[in-house]
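> forwarded from #structure-qc
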């Protein structure tokens, strides 16, 4: 019996020793700023952020250095200056990315088509042309866009806002691309050139329509007689001239 009690005592001591060891491990998760203890490292991480909170917007940070950098967004401080053009930046990474505009360096390469980008964010945007991803969705009509800027400009079609103004004639347009196209009516610029006949156009869609005169493509078909046309306006004229009288007689 004595042996049995002794063995039982040993097991209790081992059990208590094991518990003490586990408790010691749990108490190792301690905040160095306020000495508060946590049983899980993720709880400590969450707690530490409460010591580094932006008093302007409430955003929290794991390190005080991160908070210090963030505060520049509110103060407007730009301590990183380009030695080539004197342009200043809020963050060091922004300066490094800007410097590539002078050096021509493009370290971010697309594995699909070998396109090279100066910034990782530009590469991520480019990758959507391969994946088809369109993360920005219009809440009004459900249209989706690859870039946030595309969504912002699309919203103008719902609000009626036309923030882009032509400085020559005062016309207002809803999208920047439309303003660029409109400006060619003043400058006479025609950057889109037909490789078949060298004819030039101010708009890409006009060039695409023109190319059908060379390819013979006629995507617009008359529902009455099946005749094809290269442009929708030509189809409309055909219907009015050829089939309008026929429909009137049938009625």
């Amino acid at each position: 019996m004595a042996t049995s009690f002794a063995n039982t005592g040993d097991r209790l001591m081992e059990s208590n020793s094991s518990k003490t060891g586990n408790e010691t491990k749990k108490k190792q998760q301690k905040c160095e700023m306020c000495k508060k203890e946590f049983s899980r490292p993720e709880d400590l991480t969450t707690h530490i952020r409460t010591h580094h909170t932006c008093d302007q917007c409430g955003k929290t940070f794991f390190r005080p250095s991160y908070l210090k950098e963030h505060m520049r967004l509110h103060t407007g401080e730009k301590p990183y200056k380009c030695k080539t053009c004197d342009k200043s930046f809020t963050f060091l990474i922004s300066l490094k990315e800007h410097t590539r505009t002078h050096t021509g360096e493009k370290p971010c390469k697309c594995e699909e088509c070998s396109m090279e980008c100066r910034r990782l964010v530009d590469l991520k945007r480019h990758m959507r042309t391969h994946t088809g991803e369109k993360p920005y969705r219009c809440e009004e009509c459900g249209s989706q866009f690859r870039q946030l800027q595309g969504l912002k400009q699309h919203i103008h079609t719902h609000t009626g806002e036309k923030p882009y103004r032509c400085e020559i004639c005062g016309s207002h347009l809803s999208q920047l691309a439309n303003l660029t196209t409109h400006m060619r009516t003043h400058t006479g610029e025609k950057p889109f050139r037909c490789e078949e006949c060298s004819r030039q156009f101010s708009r890409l869609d006009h060039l695409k329509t023109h190319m059908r005169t060379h390819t013979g493509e006629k995507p617009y078909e008359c529902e009455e007689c099946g005749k094809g046309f290269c442009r929708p306006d030509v189809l409309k004229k055909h219907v009015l001239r050829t089939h309008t009288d026929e429909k009137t007689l049938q009625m």
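QC bot note: Residues 183 and 216 are 31 Å apart (CA to CA). Residues 192-245 form a domain with the Double Stranded RNA Binding Domain fold (CATH 3.30.160.60).
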